[in-house]
Design goal:
Distance between the termini of chain A: 49 Å
Number of strands of chain B: 25
Order of helices and strands of chain A: HHHHHHHH
Shape of chain A: globular
Distance between the termini of chain B: 61 Å
Oligomer: heterodimer
CATH topology of the largest domain in chain A: Rna Polymerase Sigma Factor, Chain: A
Number of helices of chain A: 8
Largest sheet of chain B: 13 strands, mixed
Radius of gyration of chain B: 29 Å
CATH architecture of the largest domain in chain A: Orthogonal Bundle
Largest interface: A-B, 86 and 75 residues
Radius of gyration of chain A: 19 Å
Strand content of chain A: under 5%
């Protein structure tokens, strides 16, 4: 029975840790690997691995740092399986990226919540552009075809929308803090 | 140079030229730039997540209101493929809702390691000898899925679907994590990894070992201390929980403790792997005065001698002969001197592996010396023997095709001296018998002035 309790506690502990860390792990993997499907598959592999190795996690240290250490190995594995001629992050850059992601860990959930609000206020055209990119997974050229625009215009639109959302998130957080 | 948000976005979308990617990677070397990049990648990741979740909700509402085919025309005039709903569901379920599910599946009831053995077969028990399993009884051919296997005694070989072959030497606690990732909690294993399975990983309490196309041994003590010995090729090792990767090349060994701060180089010592390694390399049993030679740069024909035992060397595996070649024996039974006009050929094609069996007295013996070493033994292979090469000429003729790449093969007389058909059985000649099932060779060799050598060719495809 005690064993069951301790297992339940471990399960809960892992669940809480993972739910908190996963958005940052996703950002790390999305940053180092282009392509939603590959990145998402990798995040899943990382989730499974850290769950299995959870007994090795030293709870006196930050969970995210440990998970990103595991993630780095999986990203390197992914690079190895890929074509050699593609440019990839060096070990040093992956390390720097990991550090940058860890630095952004504070306030992560607040920023995500703020983004949800900001998305509500997005003009229809901007929202359609984002849906075509992130849900339909169309490249810029196909989006341009679909909306009768040019590839360059679509790229500029998407960049502006993202930058606008980032500013909106910052504004909301400043308002809450004030 | 400065990198615009537009270029960063394209980089994150995988939509940049090589020159642009190179420029971004160079730009990222500055810490403040990396911070800006991390911020941008966060927006991308969060948008992907949020928009997917909203889409799933929208689809669910559509299904509830019997509108299973929402009009997508608002996206533009031209038709757009509907996204893969299953994929969306999988993604959202995975990223948002499955931490608890993941925990319950992976942690499971009971012992934290004894969790759900997946029914999906990742490997099979290819061979076992005196194997005692404490978790469940297993037979040759049984599938192994994800999870722990506990071998208390004996030897067992697990062949993975991707071609990797791992032999456990009891007692060993071994975990299959995926088709190319495993964990040795304690015990000894040897592994041979073909090209198709490069990247095969063995985690231990002290180190992670990643194969780079090779054969190696790993031993983990009850205190978690881990030794790695590389027989062929090279592996990467890193301390558990650390980034720094270290390359270990063939003929080298390293050791580390759990929570240790360094991986130490230690003497290349293969003794502890002598139970498991032969099985990994296809020699299931060697009895009598037979010694399977652990691989390593110095343990090759011509450089390693033993006058008391018949040495068994693995020479080459995965050989595909481009032309036919000649051997001395192809059928079960006793090898006897054959008439020159009788030629046995192995056809081109197929895939074969070769071993060299050798009795090589240390130093030189005088002709007609009394008390010449005589040794008797049996060796059993995992594949059928399709040819024996035991004459000097044919041995030399097949050295290039079948000899060990690092071997040093003498050009003097080196075959064995089989009896003629009319010799009495006690004539003192070398006796070699191939069993009816073609898997076991019995030998009774006496070393003369020549090195007694037999090359054994097995069929890897049967």
């Amino acid at each position: 029975m005690n064993q069951d309790l301790s297992e339940n506690e471990r399960r809960q502990e892992f669940t809480q840790h993972w739910l908190a860390a996963e958005p940052s792990v996703s950002a790390y993997v999305f940053a180092s690997i282009a392509g939603f499907h590959d990145a998402e598959d990798l995040v899943q592999q990382i989730a499974q691995e850290v769950a299995r190795r959870f007994d090795q996690y030293d709870s006196s240290r930050p969970f995210l740092g440990w998970v990103l250490w595991v993630a780095r190995s999986r990203v390197i594995d992914f690079y190895r399986r890929r074509k050699r001629d593609q440019l990839v992050f060096s070990d040093e850059l992956l390390q720097k990226l990991s550090q940058a992601i860890v630095e952004r860990d504070a306030g992560r959930s607040d920023r995500r919540e703020a983004l949800e609000h900001c998305l509500e206020g997005l003009p229809g055209k901007s929202r359609r552009g984002l849906d075509l990119r992130y849900v339909e997974e169309l490249p810029s050229a196909r989006i341009a075809d679909s909306v009768g625009s040019t590839t360059g215009s679509v790229r500029v639109l998407l960049t502006r929308v993202r930058s606008g959302l980032a500013e909106c998130v910052q504004r909301r957080l400043t308002m809450v803090d004030a | 140079m400065d990198v615009s948000d537009e270029l960063l976005d394209r980089f994150l979308d995988g939509d940049t030229s090589n020159e642009e990617s190179e420029a971004v990677l160079h730009w990222l070397e500055a810490d403040q730039n990396m911070r800006r990049f991390a911020e941008r990648s966060e927006i991308h990741a969060d948008l992907r997540r949020s928009l997917h979740r909203r889409n799933v909700q929208q689809e669910a509402l559509a299904v509830c209101s019997d509108d299973a085919s929402p009009d997508l025309s608002e996206y533009g005039d031209k038709p757009i493929r509907r996204h893969d709903g299953r994929r969306t569901f999988a993604f959202v379920a995975a990223t948002l809702a499955t931490a608890a599910l993941l925990a319950s599946v992976l942690f499971g009831p009971g012992n934290s390691f004894d969790r759900s053995n997946s029914t999906a077969s990742i490997a099979t028990v290819a061979y076992q000898s005196n194997a005692g399993w404490s978790d469940q009884q297993r037979s040759v051919g049984d599938p192994i899925g994800r999870g722990i296997v506990q071998l208390d005694v004996g030897i067992a070989r697990l062949d993975f679907a991707n071609g990797a072959s791992v032999t456990l030497q009891g007692s060993a606690r071994f975990e299959v994590l995926s088709n190319n990732r495993t964990r040795l909690h304690h015990g000894i294993l040897t592994a041979q990894i073909p090209e198709a399975a490069i990247g095969f990983e063995v985690q231990t309490p002290a180190m992670d070992v990643v194969d780079l196309g090779t054969a190696f041994g790993v031993s983990v003590g009850t205190d978690g201390e881990t030794g790695v010995c590389v027989f062929e090729g090279e592996v990467e090792v890193n301390l558990a929980g650390r980034d720094a990767v270290q390359l270990v090349r063939e003929g080298n060994a390293v050791r580390s403790r759990p929570s240790g701060s360094v991986i130490k180089s230690v003497a290349y010592e293969t003794n502890r792997y002598e139970g498991a390694w032969p099985v990994t390399s296809g020699v299931l049993q060697a009895t009598g005065l037979m010694k399977f030679v652990s691989p390593g740069p110095e343990f090759v024909p011509g450089r390693f001698e033993d006058n008391e035992r018949i040495l068994v060397f693995l020479e080459r595996s995965g050989v595909v002969p481009q032309t036919e070649f000649f051997v001395d024996l192809v059928d079960p039974g006793q090898y006897q001197r054959i008439h020159r006009s009788e030629q046995h050929a192995i056809a081109a094609g197929g895939r074969i592996r070769s071993y060299l069996l050798q009795l090589d007295p240390v130093g030189r013996l005088e002709r007609n010396a009394i008390n010449k070493p005589r040794v008797i033994g049996q060796v059993t292979f995992d594949r059928p023997v399709i040819g024996l090469i035991a004459s000097s000429k044919k041995l030399s003729a097949t050295d290039d095709l079948l000899g060990h790449p690092g071997g040093d093969y003498v050009k003097t007389r080196r075959g064995i001296e089989p009896p003629r058909a009319d010799n009495a059985s006690d004539s003192g000649r070398d006796v070699v018998i191939l069993s009816v099932d073609r898997r076991t060779l019995s030998l009774d060799l006496s070393a003369g002035t020549a090195v007694d050598q037999i090359r054994v060719v097995v069929d890897e495809l049967n």
